[in-house]
Write a structure and sequence with these properties.
Helix content is about 85%, strand content about 0%. By secondary structure, it is mainly alpha-helical. About 0% of the residues are buried.
Length: about 45
Amino acid sequence: MAMPQRDDTIEAIKRLDALLEYVGQHGDEAGAERIREELRKLTDEV
């Protein structure tokens, strides 16, 4: 994986992780599951 692409992937993971923390604190379980699925997709690519 090229460095810029890897950096973009890392940043996307960080954003989704922060968003997951936010929705978790607000009790949005459906939103949290959607974010977890997006994280799975990103990490499966790596």
